[in-house]
């Protein structure tokens, strides 16, 4: 039936998406991003972020992962289309890498904006408790 076809298309879309996620996670740079994300989540749990702060951290982290995944896709496509050196392909790859850098820098800034006040408060509380 038509419903079965729609269900199969959705199922295949999810299978393909999870396969893409598995491939992205196997990349060296993505492993670095995952380590940073795990440390961020542990730190976020320790300093007790508000729901909005959690949302900002999670969206920023997802943005870095998405940018890195697009970068990997563009690199793979570029290498397939043009296995030899090509200046236009180099520009395309540099632009994709630049997008990751933009997202990573914004993630660092977001992290500093959220965590520095929390850490200062934590240190101040500990200091006043020890007095």
How does this model look, in words?
The protein is mostly helical. The protein is 91% helix and 0% strand. The protein has 4 helices and no strands. Helix 2 (28-47) packs antiparallel against helix 3 (51-81). The model has no long low-confidence stretch (mean pLDDT 91).
In short:
This protein has 131 residues and is mainly α. It has 4 helices and no strands. The longest helix is centred in the last third of the chain and has 44 residues.
Low-confidence residue ranges: none
| Broad shape | flat
E-strand count: 0
Cα-based radius of gyration, to the nearest Å: 20 Å
Number of helices: 4
Strand content: under 5%
How confident overall, as mean pLDDT? Answer: 91
End-to-end distance: 74 Å
Helix and strand succession?
HHHH
Content-based structural category = mainly alpha
Major β-sheet annotation: none
Helix content: over 70%
Record the SSE blueprint:
Elements: H1 2-25, H2 28-47, H3 51-81, H4 87-130
Descriptive key words:
mainly alpha
């Amino acid at each position: 039936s038509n419903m079965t076809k729609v269900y199969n298309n959705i199922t295949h879309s999810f299978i393909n998406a999870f396969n893409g996620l598995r491939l992205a996670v196997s990349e060296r740079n993505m492993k670095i991003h995952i380590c940073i994300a795990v440390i961020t989540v542990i730190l976020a749990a320790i300093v007790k972020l508000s729901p909005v702060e959690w949302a900002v951290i999670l969206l920023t982290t997802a943005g870095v992962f998405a940018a890195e995944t697009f970068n990997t896709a563009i690199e793979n496509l570029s290498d397939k289309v043009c296995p030899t050196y090509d200046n236009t392909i180099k520009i395309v790859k540099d632009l994709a890498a630049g997008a990751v850098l933009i997202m990573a820098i914004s993630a660092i800034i977001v992290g500093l904006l959220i965590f520095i006040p929390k850490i200062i408060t934590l240190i101040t509380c500990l200091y006043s408790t020890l007095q």
